[in-house]
Write a structure and sequence with these properties.
The chain is an alpha+beta fold. The chain is built from 1 helix and 15 strands, in the order H-E-E-E-E-E-E-E-E-E-E-E-E-E-E-E. 17% of the residues lie in helices and 26% in strands. Strands 6-5-2-13-14-15 form a 6-stranded antiparallel β-sheet, with no helix packed on it. A 4-stranded antiparallel β-sheet has the order 3-4-12-11, with no helix packed on it. The chain starts with 12 loop residues before the first helix and ends with a strand.
Length: 247
């Protein structure tokens, strides 16, 4: 079919060109509207996330912000961070008392109640026995009060045993422990390990195991007082000591 052409040459071509221009303009308008819609939706999604990241869901600092320790899954205490108790801290005094496991309630004693070189340590019922008295010093030594020249050595056989406190060099690191704010005793020879009861019920020998969450590797020092009561020094508790009746 041949299109009719109006006399004078005005014809179909100007009409077709005008129609195409209108279509192109309509397409450009649709693209602009679509771009504006995408930007609007993106803003509605990103802005709340940015505000939550900056201020936190409750108006406080966002989780994981600088200065806020992360929480251990399944635990109620902050996971070990760069802050330590016992690494020659200027405000940390020497502590003396029974070393009590928070999970079992048992205390660290010496097998046979004889504090001699090489004696094995164990978890046992807490008592007033001299072999259950320990001194945690500012340099990280855990010294036996019954035999002050002997300290807990983490590399004498399978279990933790008593050894002279005067070791030097690399061997000295086996005698020094960091007491974390969560109550974990970490040997400076290997900070991936921690003092732990050998048995799952919290009894048996005192050994080294890989650090883990939970209370099995957490300790408190029961500090004796003249009034025959005990002050529970628990790094994960409140700042104020808690008085408890002496058994």
């Amino acid at each position: 079919m041949v299109a009719a052409v109006a006399p004078g040459g005005g014809g179909v071509e100007p009409a077709v060109a005008s129609s195409r221009s209108a279509l192109r303009a309509a397409r450009r308008a649709r693209r602009r509207n679509l771009a504006l819609a995408v930007l609007t939706v993106s803003g509605l999604v990103v802005l709340p996330l940015a505000l939550w990241s900056a201020f936190g869901s409750d108006g406080g600092p966002a989780p994981g912000a600088a200065g806020t320790p992360s929480r251990t899954p399944g635990g109620d205490a902050a996971s070990p961070g760069p802050s330590w108790a016992g690494r020659n801290a200027p405000d940390q005094d020497t502590l003396r008392g029974r070393l009590r496991n928070l999970a079992s309630g048992l205390c660290v004693g010496v097998v046979g109640d004889k504090a001699v070189r090489g004696a094995e340590t164990e978890l046992t019922d807490c008592s007033a026995a001299p072999t259950q008295q320990w001194t945690y010093e500012t340099d990280g030594l855990l010294r036996s009060a019954a035999a002050p020249d002997l300290c807990l050595d983490s590399h004498l056989g399978y279990s933790v045993r008593l050894a002279p406190c005067t070791a030097t060099g690399k061997a000295a690191r086996d005698l020094h422990y960091d007491f974390t704010l969560q109550g974990t005793l970490v040997p400076r020879s290997d900070q991936e390990l921690a003092l732990t009861p050998a048995a799952t019920d919290g009894s048996g020998a005192l050994v080294l195991k890989t650090r883990a969450a939970g209370t099995a590797q957490r300790w408190a020092i029961d500090t004796a007082h003249p009034d025959l009561r005990m002050e529970n020094v628990d790094w994960d508790g409140a700042n104020s000591p808690v008085q408890a009746a002496r058994p």
